[in-house]
Amino acid sequence: MDTITFPITLIDKNKLLVKIDLRIYAKESVNAACYKFTNKFFVNQQISSESESVINVIFESKNEENISEETIKSFCNELIDQQVRYNTNLQFGHIRDLIVEEAFKPVNQ
Amino acid sequence: MNNKYQILPFRFVRFNDSEYLLTNDVGEYIFLTNDDFEKFINKDLDTSSTIFQDIASKQIATTDNVNDVVKMLATKFRTKKSILRDFTCLHMVVPTLRCNSSCIYCQVARKNIDDHEADMTKKTAKNVVKTIFQSPSPYIKIEFQGGDPSTYFEMVKFIIEEAEWQNLFKKRELGFVICTNVTLLTPGMVKYLKKHKCEISTSLDGPKELHNINRPLQDTIHTHEKFEENIRMIRKICGDNSVSALMTTSKYSLGHFKEIIDEYVRMGYNNIFLRALNPYGFAKQYKEKIAYPIEDFINNYIEGLDYIIDLNKNGTFFIEGYAALLLKRILTPFATGFVDLQSPAGVGIAGAIYDWDGNVYVADEGRMLARFNDFYFKLGNVNEDSYQSMFNGEKLHNIIKNACTECLPMCSECVYNPYCGADPVRNYSEQGDMVGHRPTSDMCKKNTAIIHHLFELLKKHDPEINRIFWSWIN
Q1: What is residue A13's predicted lDDT score, i.e. its pLDDT?
Q2: Distance, CA of B339 to CA of B325 (rounded, Å)
């Protein structure tokens, strides 16, 4: 039985690990969310050795500062936003392609 | 409840604690409460509700036949991208690197006024004009850059007349601009420029003390006086609106945007373009001395914009150019060409620069990198290479492939994407590659903050602010 789907472990004062459940979030969403935090952190992603449906993301502060709770909360929200983008894009991604194709049809002709 | 609808392509951001902002590829936007957003994406909105009708009117969702909506959105998208249709129309030419100024942020390795080493030859000038007229664009604008082109006015005249001659056969809509500090212009020169319909563009960084710090002349301490005297002379010959001006923000300008704007008003201008320092050339070399964190610029910009809005409220019509450009993108369906902020980027395909030695770069900033022996953005040389090889070569193709915000990391999902642009030269210069890294990009920070602020102002639905904004873009 699953326990907590979003466990966070402090590894060091400036380094922490977030476990992300791939049954909730797509890898693309996790990657996109991590990317946004690469300004302040070195970010490492790897599939958990315990379960293939879990990604371990390690954040290490670039300036040695402690990682605030606020940052992790922002990351959690970012994950949700990215998953919404992923889900909605599945619905309309092909429409975007059609629009661009239709828009530039005169050029191809 | 009828909730059968198709969600159309859109981007979003949590705008504040209670609202989301949604935009689509053609620049339409809408604010939704958190609750409405959740209902919308879960397809729980009633299609007869006002909020759904609003969303549908922005073409972010539809109950109609999707193919019909695709056609409509495609037409709008093509209009937004119509700047691509004409290909390169802005051709910047550097007749010489000589200059009589010593601007603290100078971006080029300027030469002394009597050093003719970097003067364009007539042979190169002829080949520059020949290359320019091979552009398919029906509009050709030749902009003289420097150094200060007025230090080699004979070459400016030669190029103008050569272009006019070529145009007798090519029949394009031809225009000229000279970018100069105006201090060396004589009434005779100005009359010549007027006769040949050459616009004059200059730089004004603010009131006397600030202008003199940023842009000192080499041979006098009375830079501002000389500048003002010549502006008066030009206006007398060419008319009140004959000289446009640009400002650059140095470290010394911070905290003084109100005085800078007041100076523009005092000098009879009705617009300003609040511009951050360019990170190239000497500015980069002496960054600590004159540069500043981008956040400082953003704060000053917002204060300046708010001050300009107040000026307008109090009866002085005055435009902030960058906001006007962005507002046109946000509020109208029209295309707005701006080489520094478009997607695909304008480098090479909207503008190109021809250096004094005939080297062609995709942008002025590419020329500046070349001063430090980085020729990454050199397309070729007019004396050696064909137009085809330079403007339809592998290099330009590769640059443009990396210059579409629709495909760049983070830009592709950014809610402000339809209003923003890519700058591969700046990314390369500041971050080491053309794609860049948005989480640490100053350009990204600046543009997102400014566009966000504009949306905050639009969201107020203040009739007076809206009237002012519309007056700027009409």
Answers
A1: 82
A2: 12
pTM summary value: 0.94
Residue among B398, B364, B384, B197 at smallest CA distance from B283: B364
Residue B331 CB neighbours (<10 A): 17
**C-alpha count within 13 angstroms, C-beta hemisphere, residue A36:** 21
Per-10-residue mean pLDDT, chain A, length 109: 56 89 96 96 94 94 85 91 96 94 81
Nearest one of B283, B264, B146, B273 to B210, comparing CA atoms: B264
CA B134 to chain CA centroid, nearest Å = 24
- List CB contacts of A34: < 8 A, sequence separation 6 or more: A43, A45, A57
Q: Counting beta carbons within 10 angstroms of the beta carbon of residue B394, is it exposed (0 to 12), middle (13 to 18) or buried (19 or more)?
A: exposed
Nearest Cβ partner for A92 among B9, B410, B440: B9
Contact status, residue A15 vs residue A59, Cβ threshold 8 Å: yes
For the sheet with B29-33, list strands across it.
B11-14, B19-23, B29-33
A37 touches chain B (CB under 8 A): yes
Nearest CA in chain B to A37: B439
Report ipTM for this prediction: 0.89
